[in-house]
Write a structure and sequence with these properties.
By secondary structure, the protein is α/β, with parallel strands linked by helices. 41% of the residues lie in helices and 11% in strands. The protein contains six helices and four strands; from the N terminus they run αβαβααβαβα. The protein has a four-stranded parallel β-sheet with strand order 1-2-3-4, with no helix packed on it. Helix 1 packs parallel to helix 2 and helix 2 crosses helix 4. The radius of gyration is 16 Å and the shape is globular.
Length: 166
């Protein structure tokens, strides 16, 4: 799984994917989607990428794009989802639970509206005894264990009410 920061900024990404394919590895790449183009999508597929994961942070374009600081990002993703599918990259929306998402049902409807058919939910990593720097405490992701349990219970309950594969 190639993640970041933003892995599409890594200049040796395509050779890494090609080498992983040579080794028989199933590769996933997690991106914010901003640097994706039809040509990039073809290159990723040709290099051996199997699954493209797109981070989604809010249940409206304004919240998502504002959080990412990339106006128009949601529209860009919506436009490219059919290209990702045609390339066989199995696009998946990746949602980290945060206080930006005030209604999980609304989030699922938003993802369906954009054109996703698959979504994965994860919990925020706020503490980790590791050199990995992809974690931090922040009011938007600091949940008590009880709150996280409730959120994942809600996700589980919503599985029956959506066309999305969760």
């Amino acid at each position: 799984c190639l993640t970041g920061g933003e892995p599409l900024l890594y200049c040796a990404l395509l050779p890494v994917l090609a080498r992983a394919r040579e080794l028989g590895m199933h590769t996933l790449l997690c991106t914010n989607g901003w640097r994706l183009t039809p040509a990039c999508i073809r290159e990723l597929k040709n290099a051996g990428l199997k699954t493209l994961i797109v981070s989604m942070d809010g249940s409206t374009a304004a919240v998502h794009d504002g959080h990412r600081g990339l106006p128009g990002l949601t529209g860009h993703i919506r436009e490219l989802l059919p290209t990702m599918r045609r390339a066989g990259l199995n696009p998946v929306a990746s949602v980290t639970l945060s206080r930006l998402i005030t209604d999980l049902g609304e989030m699922l409807r938003f993802l369906e509206e954009i054109g996703f058919d698959r979504v994965t939910f994860s919990y925020p990593i706020t503490r980790l005894d590791s050199a990995y720097l992809g974690f931090a405490g922040h009011a938007s992701v600091d949940f008590s264990p009880e709150e996280l349990h409730g959120l994942f219970g809600r996700v589980k309950a919503l599985k029956a009410a959506t066309s999305l594969n969760i």
